[in-house]
Design goal:
The chain is an alpha+beta fold. The chain folds into five domains: 105 residues, no CATH class; 110 residues, Nucleotidyltransferase, domain 5 (2-Layer Sandwich); 112 residues, no CATH class; 56 residues; 46 residues. Helix content is 46%, strand content 14%. α17 packs across α18.
Length: 545
């Protein structure tokens, strides 16, 4: 019998060794467990004196975790001891069982920790629904209180940290997130994003050797003042983002080139060529009628790329190596590698059928009958009565085509926008479509200033991707003397933050993990709806990472 009670105690209280199970009763969906403490004496919470003089005892009923789907009612008999220290203001005190109860607690420690874990993962409303499914008791406010009761993790002694800002209220209130750049663990969240807030935190960590940051002057000032021994590393993503904005300002300054750009003929759709048979009496008619493939610049491009990828793969290179060698995405290389023929990479551009097709003869007849004097609303009502289930957009497109006479010349294409031109200059050439590539070449040939900007962007991209920071001084000189307003200003900013930029272009440190943490903070904020105050947000981010 002693072994049976010991086994029951191990099942019910696996992490508590100071409890003895006296009785277990099961009635329906409720299990009543009577237990008592086995410790001889307790320490006074007032003076710390050990006492074994029992003053009395009573039953406590702390809420506990369910067992096998049944609600557990824990009847725990606790003793009240008399304090033996005469100078202590406490005359009596109640014993607390470590790992099971606490003073004035109405639930066991394992139930509190379970609710805290649910609150960290799901927050209030979603956590409340989950507690109900698990058979636990706890409102959304209880879950949030359990989260706020948890102690913060020790920061430790990180040697490399990443710093970035995040929005508490976008456009109005911003905070600062600090992570360990080696382990990617969140170290702290600060309520502001200025030097006065970050400086004291960095001053308390004199062992920091590397600080990954963006181009914000406040973070640079805090690092210079509080951690002069640390190497500051400007993030490469932010460097490229800043260059893109500089190119946008340069294109804006030369927008007159866009309006005077000569018209570019779009690339014709690929046409399939069907060769004629050599002899009319050929026996292999299927082979004679099989199309050879599409033609045009797009077809030539796909053919060359398909042969290049398969040639590199046959040499023993992996898809990852091919993508790195060509500067392409791995998905693009994978599609070429899995295509048996280059023709399989061509999209089918055959016209698609629409819901309006069965009604086009009726519409054409009505159009001729009225001489084009019928409105789109009347036509829509008439074909709807005949069973048309489409929208007005298809009808409007058909009407615009009917109004276009064969002799009328199509309107000239609009000039490219500033955003389009910036995209042509800053995107990888392999990612441009054939039409965009033609338009880009036409623009650069038409505007020498943008041609110079394109060369500077290409040079900076090579320096950024290959970590060739030794080319930075020459690039800054070329950019400052180019006379391009946006890029020259960007180069002046690089020169003022030269050490951090050079470290970002020569070392492997970057702020990618910090950006990932910022995205997770956004998810947690949306999960908590309107209750994402800074204190609660800080607890969830620090303890759930």
């Amino acid at each position: 019998m002693t072994q049976s009670w010991s086994l029951i105690r191990e099942l019910l209280f696996p992490s508590v060794s100071e409890v003895a199970v006296v009785r277990v009763e099961a009635a329906g969906s409720v299990v009543r467990v009577e237990a008592r403490s086995t410790v001889d004496g307790a320490d006074c919470p007032g003076c710390g004196t050990r006492s074994n003089r029992v003053h009395g005892s009573y039953l406590r009923f702390p809420a506990d975790l369910p067992s096998a789907g049944r609600r557990v009612v824990l009847a725990l008999r606790v003793r009240r001891f008399s304090c033996l220290e005469r100078s202590c203001q406490r005359r009596t005190f109640v014993e607390q069982i470590e790992g099971l109860t606490r003073r004035h607690g109405q639930s066991t420690e394992r139930l509190r920790s379970s609710l805290a874990a649910i609150g960290l993962a799901l927050a209030g409303r979603a956590g409340e629904r989950m507690t109900g499914l698990l058979g636990l008791r706890g409102s959304r406010s209880t879950l949030l209180r359990r989260v706020m009761e948890l102690p913060d993790r020790p920061v430790g002694a990180p040697t490399a940290v990443g710093v970035d800002d995040f929005a508490l209220r976008k456009g109005h209130v911003y905070g600062t997130v600090i992570i360990d750049a080696r382990t990617h663990r969140v170290l702290d969240l600060l309520p502001e994003r200025d030097a006065a807030t970050l400086g004291p935190w960095l001053a308390g960590q004199p062992q920091v050797e590397v600080i990954c940051r963006d181009r914000a002057s406040a973070y640079a000032e805090a690092a210079d003042t509080a951690s002069p021994q640390a190497k500051q590393v400007a993030d490469r993503y932010h460097l490229w983002h800043n260059l893109t904005r500089a190119v946008d300002r340069t294109v804006l300054d030369h927008r007159s080139c866009l309006h005077s750009l000569p018209a570019v003929e779009p690339e014709p759709e690929p046409q399939w060529e069907t060769p004629l048979p050599d002899r009319p009496d050929t026996d292999d008619k299927d082979e004679a009628e099989e199309p050879t493939g599409p033609t045009g610049r797009m077809a030539d491009r796909r053919s060359v790329h398909h042969a290049l990828v398969h040639d590199l793969l046959e040499r023993g290179m992996s898809m990852r190596e091919v993508a790195r060698h060509l500067g392409w995405g791995r998905n693009t290389v994978r599609r070429y590698a899995h295509a048996a023929r280059w023709q399989d990479m061509m999209k089918d551009r055959s016209p698609r059928s629409s819901k309006l097709d069965p009604f086009k003869p009726y519409l054409a007849g009505r159009w001729e009958e009225t001489g084009g004097k019928i409105t789109g609303r009347v036509l829509f009502e008439e074909i709807t009565a005949q069973g048309y289930r489409g929208g007005r957009t298809l009808l409007a497109q058909w009407k615009s085509q009917a109004l276009t006479t064969p002799d009328s010349a199509p309107p000239p294409p609009p000039p490219p926008s500033i955003r389009q031109a910036t995209s042509w200059l800053t995107r990888h050439p392999a990612g441009l479509t054939p039409d965009e590539e033609i338009q880009r070449k036409t623009l650069l040939a038409h505007c020498p200033e943008l041609d110079t900007a394109s060369g500077l962007v290409t040079s900076f991209a090579e320096m950024l991707t290959r970590l060739e920071g030794e080319r930075l001084p020459g690039w800054i000189t070329d950019a400052m003397t180019s006379g391009l307003p946006g890029i020259s200003t960007f180069a002046i900013g690089l020169n003022s933050d030269y050490d951090a930029v050079h470290a970002g272009l020569t070392t492997h440190w970057n702020s990618g993990p910090v950006e990932g943490t910022v995205n997770r903070i956004k998810m947690i904020k949306r999960q908590m709806y309107g209750r994402a105050g800074f204190k609660l947000l800080r607890k969830r981010v620090l303890l759930a990472s």
